[in-house]
Amino acid sequence: MSSPLPTPPHCIADFCLIPLGTPTASVAREIASVQRLLKTSGLSYTLHSAGTTVEGSWDDVMRVIGQCHEMLHREGVVRIQSDVRVGTRVDRVQGMGEKVERVERLLAEGEDASREG
Amino acid sequence: MSSPLPTPPHCIADFCLIPLGTPTASVAREIASVQRLLKTSGLSYTLHSAGTTVEGSWDDVMRVIGQCHEMLHREGVVRIQSDVRVGTRVDRVQGMGEKVERVERLLAEGEDASREG
Amino acid sequence: MSSPLPTPPHCIADFCLIPLGTPTASVAREIASVQRLLKTSGLSYTLHSAGTTVEGSWDDVMRVIGQCHEMLHREGVVRIQSDVRVGTRVDRVQGMGEKVERVERLLAEGEDASREG
Amino acid sequence: MSSPLPTPPHCIADFCLIPLGTPTASVAREIASVQRLLKTSGLSYTLHSAGTTVEGSWDDVMRVIGQCHEMLHREGVVRIQSDVRVGTRVDRVQGMGEKVERVERLLAEGEDASREG
Asked: Are residues C11 and D84 in contact, defined by beta-carbon separation less than 8 angstroms?
């Protein structure tokens, strides 16, 4: 019997997907396929050089990452390994963009403070 | 509209869950709660010093990790970050125990070969 | 005796550092300190919402991440956990910016093709 | 100029190394090579189904993981991606074995308590 607990209504996940046993060491084609699938999901996402960050309910986010695996398997990739960093919080809602802004504000304040010395 | 693609029927996920903003640096109490929840899930799992490995369908595995987040939030942890390594393959079914056995067999063969050499 | 093998001359590492047992769930102050330390390192780095990507020789990159841990310990954080995704390749040198460009080029080509199709 | 801060004298790192662009989806051969290299390093390490945990000074641990990359590159693997979870703490020294023991003790106590209850 599965536990009746729900999953979190909101999360931010950053995933780095790696196909194994592919003829070349390049993964750009697979990552492009992943971006196209994410686009159809309706979730907010952003690509960076070490992964893709996606935001939404836990179930929606994890489903779309699983669908990325399934899609690539159907395209012929026999084995896939992903690293997923996923965060949830209940103290406040924080979008993925706000995290960087907050750090940059602290950095700017620090520089102002040292200029004002 | 969500993509109609299914998620993989089988995966092995290894996750390391970290509570943030807790009064102590110890996470043993939270990890013990996670083990209890996993026990009720019916999935195969094993605890090691750097995480917990769990095996099952993509949806079941990801649901139970999400439930771990939700359970700890309800126990008062305001923020949780998990690192999840998740692998899927379609060339063959491989349980989590077999991976280590395969490497150990290769190591043993290598030692036999060098003794014979 | 340590093996005489060298470490790779170039790598791209993306790390997400998490302080444990801190009074608040916010990590912005710690991440700002990390950015300041990276700035003094002379290495190329970029902050995104799920971590910081840094590029350089294996030894330089790993040293600076270790220094980030040490710095935060000295600032009073008793326990720190980082997730580091690190990649090396010998087929060609690829900077962290080029990875995203390559995927975006593939996506743009795909859209051109479907428009032309 | 590199910062004069030292790196932590002790850490526990768990790494999962993935070769890219190899002819097969199996990684057992590469993981066996990694275990052999770790054996020569003199560091404590243990293999589990989702990675290898290694313990020592930050510099020693990160050097040996880098040497694993370099070794596999020399064996012909053109691209390697590792996920490394690394933890440091200054409140007390905790070996990798103790973490699991502590959780298991908590679980056993909970079961005793509910039997007595």
From this structure: no
Rounded Cα distance, C59 and D48, in Å: 26
Spatial CA neighbour of D103 closest among B72, B38, B37, B28? B28
Nearest CA among C69, C24, C28, A86 for reference residue B22: C24
pLDDT at A56: 97
From chain C, the residues in CB contact with D102 under 8 A are: none
The sheet carrying A51-56 orders its strands as A44-48, A51-56, A11-20, A79-89, B79-89, B11-20, B51-56, B44-48
Q: Name residue, tokens 């690190």.
A: C86
* Spatial CA neighbour of B50 closest among D59, D53, D55, C109: D53
Average of pLDDT values for D84-96? 91
Write out pLDDT tens, residues A56-67.
999 999 999 999
Please give the residue of chain B at the shortest CA–CA distance from D90: B25
Strand ranges for D1-117 from DSSP E:
11-20, 44-48, 51-56, 79-89
- Taking the C-alpha atoms of A99, A101, A107 and A109 in order, what is their torsion angle to the nearest 10 degrees? -120
Contacts of B76 in chain C (CB under 8 A): none
| Model confidence pLDDT, tens digit, residues C39-73 | 999 999 999 999 999 999 999 999 999 999 999 99
**What is the rounded distance in angstroms from the CA atom of residue A100 to the CA atom of residue A46?**
13
C27 phi/psi in degrees, rounded to 5: -115, 10
CB contact under 8 Å between B32 and D103, yes or no, is: yes
Instruction: Read off the DSSP letter of residue A112.
Output: H
**A49 with C99: Cβ contact below 8 A:** yes
Burial of A113 (0-12, 13-18, 19+ CB in 10 A): exposed
Vertex D107 angle, CA D106 and D110, to 5°:
85
> What is the pTM (predicted TM-score) of this model?
0.93
Residue D96: the pLDDT is 86
Residues in chain B: 117
Q: How far apart are CA A48 and CA A85, in angstroms?
A: 14
Residue whose pair of structure tokens reads 């980030």 in the numeric block: C68
